[in-house]
C-alpha cells in the first residue's frame, strides 16, 4: 500500500496546505486547508504519527493585575504610601491609626526588606534611601491587557515577588505550530489525489448501491491497536465472592460483626489467658476506649480463667482482671465475631461464617500486612466431630480448586484438638492456610453452649495469593492499575 493510500482526505488537505506555506498556526491551517480548525488539527496529529508533519507547542505566559494589584497601581504599594507619609520617625501605633493595622503589617516587612526604613523599639525610622523599585515600574507598565514579561520590561525575580504578593496572576496560553517535514514535502510534490473516501459502510450506501462508485479507506493491518481494558471486578473481590458463594451453597448463614471488639470477645471469651503474648502491644492494636462487659457471661468467663469454673479444668490460675477485658481492640481475628454470635445463639444447629477484615500490628512486607481478611466459620450441632471438621474444610478447598489438602496438628488456646490446614501447590509445596479445631469446653461452657462446636479461621489473602500467583500480598491492596488491567476477568 502506498503512503498516499494511507492518508485520509483531511490529511491530504492539510499536507497540501502546508506544502505551500511550510508551517502554520492552527488558524492559518484552517484558512488554507478549508477545514474546521479541529478537523485540521486532528489530521495534523495523524500526519505527525506518520512523520509527515511535526507539531510543536509553545507556552506563552502572560500576566495581569489582580484587584489588589489594580488598587496599588493606582494608589501606590502599601510601603510607598507609608514612606511618602513618613517625614520623621513615627511609632507603629500612630501609623496603624492613620493607615489600617493590616496595611502597616504588609508594608513593614517590605520597608525593611527594601531598606527604606528601620524599626527601632516600635518606631519606624525612615532611612532616607528611597528608590523606585522594579516592582513599581512593572506595575506601572500594566494596561488592561495581559502582558508578557518582555512587554512589561520586567524580570523573573520581580514577577515572582508580585505573584507571591498576589498582585498579579499568570495566564498560560498554548501556541501550536504545524510544520511539514521533508518526507511530507516529498509526498506533497508528487501530487495528492483529493478523493472522498469512505471509512464506514452504512445501510444507506448498501441499499442505494452507491457503494459501488465510492472509494473505501483501506484497512491497515500492520498497526497494532491500543489495548482496550474493560471494567471488571477486582480480582481479590472476585475470589472473596467465590469463597462466600461456596459457604452459602453449603448452607451457611453469613454473619457480620464490629471491627472494634472488646478484649472480652476478642480474647477472654476464647479462653486466651490475659498474659498471652498475642495480647501484647506489639501484636494488637489497642484502642483508648473501653466498653461494658456482658453481665450474663463475664462472671462465668472469669471463673473459667481463674480456676476452671464448674468443669473438670484448672483454668489459667491467678486473678482475672475485669478492666483488662473491657479494653477495646481492633479485632485481631474474626473468631471474635463467631464466638459472640454463638453466645447469642446457643441452641443447635448453627452454621455460620464471616468473611471480613482483621487487624494485627505487623511490619509490612511481601507476606504481611496489618489489615487482612479471614474466612471464619462455625458449625454447632449434636454429635459433631473432629472428622466432620476435616471433611468440611477439605470440601471447601476442593471447591476452591486445590486437590491435595492435609491437616497438621496445631495449637490454639480455644480449640482441642487443633489443626492447621495445608494445601499442596506445584512449585511451592505444602502451604499453611489458617487454623481450625473443636472449641474447648472452657470456651463453650461459660457461654451456655452444650453441643460441640467446629471452628476455623482461614487466611483469605494467602489463599488469594496462591490463586492469583502473586509473590507479594501488598498487590491485593494497592490497586496497581497495570496489574489490575492484566489480571484475568474470569475464574482461574
Ligand atoms: N483465630 C485463629 C484461627 C482459628 C479460628 C478458629 C479455630 C481455630 C483457629 C487465627 O486467627 O489464626
Automatic annotation (TrEMBL):
Entry EC number(s): 6.1.1.20
Segments traversing the membrane: none
Cell location: Cytoplasm
Annotated Gene Ontology cellular component terms: cytoplasm
Record's protein name: Phenylalanine--tRNA ligase alpha subunit
Gene name in the database record: pheS
Top enzyme category: ligase
Domain Aminoacyl-transfer RNA synthetases class-II family profile: from-to ranges: 236-478
One annotated GO biological process: phenylalanyl-tRNA aminoacylation
Organism field: Methanosarcina vacuolata Z-761
NCBIfam families, sorted: pheS (TIGR00468), PRK04172.1 (NF003210)
Known cofactor(s): Mg(2+)
Cofactor details (free text): Binds 2 magnesium ions per tetramer.
Amino acid at each position: 500500500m502506498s503512503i498516499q493510500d494511507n492518508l485520509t482526505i483531511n490529511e491530504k488537505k492539510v499536507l497540501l496546505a502546508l506544502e505551500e506555506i511550510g508551517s502554520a498556526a492552527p488558524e492559518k491551517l484552517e484558512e488554507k486547508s478549508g477545514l474546521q480548525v479541529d478537523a485540521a488539527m486532528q489530521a495534523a496529529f495523524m500526519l505527525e504519527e506518520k512523520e509527515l508533519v511535526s507539531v510543536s507547542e509553545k507556552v506563552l505566559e502572560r500576566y495581569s493585575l489582580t484587584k489588589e494589584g489594580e488598587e496599588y497601581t493606582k494608589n501606590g504599594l502599601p510601603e510607598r504610601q507609608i514612606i511618602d507619609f513618613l517625614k520623621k520617625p513615627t511609632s507603629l501605633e500612630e501609623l496603624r491609626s492613620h493607615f489600617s493595622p493590616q496595611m502597616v503589617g504588609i508594608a513593614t516587612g517590605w520597608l525593611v526588606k527594601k531598606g527604606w526604613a528601620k524599626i527601632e523599639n516600635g518606631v519606624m525610622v525612615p532611612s532616607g534611601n528611597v528608590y523606585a523599585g522594579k516592582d513599581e515600574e512593572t506595575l506601572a507598565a500594566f494596561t488592561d491587557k495581559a502582558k508578557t514579561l518582555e512587554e512589561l520590561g520586567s524580570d523573573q525575580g520581580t514577577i515572582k515577588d508580585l505573584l507571591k504578593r498576589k498582585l498579579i496572576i499568570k495566564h498560560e496560553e498554548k501556541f501550536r505550530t504545524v510544520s511539514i517535514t521533508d518526507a511530507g514535502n516529498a509526498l506533497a510534490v508528487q501530487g495528492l489525489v483529493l478523493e472522498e473516501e469512505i471509512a464506514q459502510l452504512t445501510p444507506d450506501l448498501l441499499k442505494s448501491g452507491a457503494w459501488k462508485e465510492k472509494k473505501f479507506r483501506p484497512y491497515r493491518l500492520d498497526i497494532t491497536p491500543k489495548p482496550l481494558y474493560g471494567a471488571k471486578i477486582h480480582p481479590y473481590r472476585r475470589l472473596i465472592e467465590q469463597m462466600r458463594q461456596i459457604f452459602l451453597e453449603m448452607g451457611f448463614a453469613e454473619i457480620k460483626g464490629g471491627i472494634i471488639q472488646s478484649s472480652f470477645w476478642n480474647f477472654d471469651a476464647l479462653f486466651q489467658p490475659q498474659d498471652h503474648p498475642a495480647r501484647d502491644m506489639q501484636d494488637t492494636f489497642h484502642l483508648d476506649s473501653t466498653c461494658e462487659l456482658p453481665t450474663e457471661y463475664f462472671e462465668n468467663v472469669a471463673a473459667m480463667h481463674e480456676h476452671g469454673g464448674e468443669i473438670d479444668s484448672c483454668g489459667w490460675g491467678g486473678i482475672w482482671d475485669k478492666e483488662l477485658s473491657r479494653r477495646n481492640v481492633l479485632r485481631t481475628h474474626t473468631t471474635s465475631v463467631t464466638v459472640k454470635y454463638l453466645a447469642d445463639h446457643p441452641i443447635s444447629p448453627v452454621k455460620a461464617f464471616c468473611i471480613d477484615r482483621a487487624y494485627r500490628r505487623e511490619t509490612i512486607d511481601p507476606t504481611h500486612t496489618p489489615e487482612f481478611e479471614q474466612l471464619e466459620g462455625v458449625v454447632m450441632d449434636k454429635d459433631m466431630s473432629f472428622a466432620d471438621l476435616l471433611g468440611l474444610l477439605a470440601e471447601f478447598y476442593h471447591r476452591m480448586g486445590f486437590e491435595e489438602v492435609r491437616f497438621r496438628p496445631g495449637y490454639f488456646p480455644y480449640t482441642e484438638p487443633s489443626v492447621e490446614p495445608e494445601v499442596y501447590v506445584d512449585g511451592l509445596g505444602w502451604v499453611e492456610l489458617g487454623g481450625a479445631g473443636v472449641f474447648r469446653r472452657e470456651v463453650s461452657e461459660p457461654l451456655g453452649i452444650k453441643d460441640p462446636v467446629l471452628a476455623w479461621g482461614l487466611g483469605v489473602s494467602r489463599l488469594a495469593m496462591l490463586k492469583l500467583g502473586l509473590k507479594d500480598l501488598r498487590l491485593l491492596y494497592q490497586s496497581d492499575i497495570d496489574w489490575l488491567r492484566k489480571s484475568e476477568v474470569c475464574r482461574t
